[in-house]
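Inputs:
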Amino acid sequence: MIRPIAAAVALILMLPATAHAGAWTKEWGAYYFKVGGDYYKPGAYVDPETGEETSDSFFGQSYGLYLEAGIFPLWPIQVSVHVPVSIGTVTFSDPKTFGDESARATTTRFGDLRVGVQGAILKKAVQLSIGFDVKIPMYSNDRVGAEFSTYREVFPIPGDGQIDLNPWVHVGGGIPDVPLWMTLGVGYLHRTSTFVGWDTDLDFVDSLSFTYTFGGSPGPVHVMFNLDGNKNFAEDTVTRERVALGPSFAVNVWKGLSVSARFQGEVWARNATQGVSFGFGLSYHRPN
Amino acid sequence: MTKRSFDFEFALFSRRDALKAGGAAAVAGTVAGCDALNLPAVDLIDEVPPITPQEDFYLQHCCGTPSIDPATFTLEITYEGEVLATIDRDFVESLEARTREHTLQCIGARPRFLFIGNAVWTGLPFSEVLSLAIVGDDSGYVVPDDVVELRFACADGYYENLPPTDLDDGGDDGTGPLWLVWGMNDEELSVSHGAPFRFLTPGRYGTQNPKWVTTLELAKELSTGYWAEDFRGSWSDEARYLTNGMILSPPNMAALGADTIRIVGSAFAGKRGVTRVEVTTDGRRTWTDAEITYQGDPGSHVWTLWRYDWVLDSPGDYAIQCRVTDEDGNVSDPDPAGTADKDGYNGGMEITVRIT
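Outputs:
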């Protein structure tokens, strides 16, 4: 039986959207470190078998560490690592057993480890860089809820359980004499169907992935508008595709130390319902 | 009845081992794999009522309950585009109805979805209704030879089909005769249960028992039912009842403190009578016969109810499973989740209880 993919995808979407460097690649000795929490609430919960909305609901939390560091002295090349802990809670009903009351099933796991490498191609007024990200599941979907007999299927799984490969191109730049900037990234998200800890016959399709940020930085405050998502190259019934947008803010409170917050709403989604997410973070940025 | 609420939490790492390794490891172990289930207080049932009250009878719709005025609702019988008869509430209430005890089970019934119920329905075999509505007397309406299916279109957008042979008693086939019913347990049928009338299809899961039917076409071509469509999961279009057993109390994951636990449940195989229900409390090593507490006449399409008073040996976590055998020798599948998937539930349900 197919496990709750809708919930799974909800969990893996909770990435710290403001954490990615965009087109600017870290120089040797520079680094960026962030701890943060993200929360996701879909508008409805869809039965993965019937595709029908149910009275069940889902709430996702993710807490993670994110690091970017320049690693090469002669040219800007950086590595990035994101290590999340995902907590997904499904609130469900079972009228024959519980009457009008609801029950809750919560899954807590390390989520998807993301490791990336990025190198600058052009570092003039216009920044151009290429990158390659790998997503590796740190959990076993086969073991989620395994101790719970007939309620096993209720437990949300932390993710799609497979290794993803995602090459990117990023371009960005600022407007001279004005504290405004933007960065645009376009990638090919290849879903390998190589599953870790999950015996499943699911098969996901590849996507075009994209991210766009337009920001202004008056003094210590950074105000940004973010848009990101993915569009599948083929139609299927399990691979979620979505477009999300929303604002984010960061304030430099002391030297390289910043606090940040973000909000995002999904304006379009397929193979899952739309939802909203918000997050906060505490970060430290050391320039080279 | 006893009410308890309970929480369960399982860590994939042994907490004892993790604690030996230090606090950080304990935290890491919990984070690496922790599932928690919080269930509300439940009622333990001593006995399942043989006749399910209308308000407790399960409801499962494709598209919500439509807005229906039973007084003006009509069902048209059509053939080759021509309306052969129109049936409304006044018409069916003018007929000399009979009663029929009959069990309904949802094709999606599973251990988490105990969608089964039994009621005494008031109505008539639909072949008799057809005769009275089309011919005008009880001499019988002969369905044209080129009709290959009865095609139902419903007010809520649902659609379904049955073979014309379901108008007759299918005999060994285990299906039929199709009934039209307008009363339930000596009460008027509520709108949520299909008022002013609905169909009962002996031998077939609830998907083939349509409600709020506005048009019944005597069709000359085969079609695909609502839930049998590929994009809705390709549920069985035949939807014949499979032999299965359900544990209705205690609920899965119940925490229990008594010395003796009464386990009650249902067994059902459609027209095939249930001859035996067994229970295991030791991981399928030994099976003990349960006591049959209610059963319909042979071939009656009525559920079997059973109970088993389990005398406990010692505290701990126990898996309890039932096994059902029908009169044809079919046995429910040992996989508690069932193995028939889109053909319906064919398992013997398993629950886990914690004895404290």
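Remarks. Chain A has one domain: 5-286. The domain at 5-286 of chain A is CATH 2.40.160.40 (Porin).
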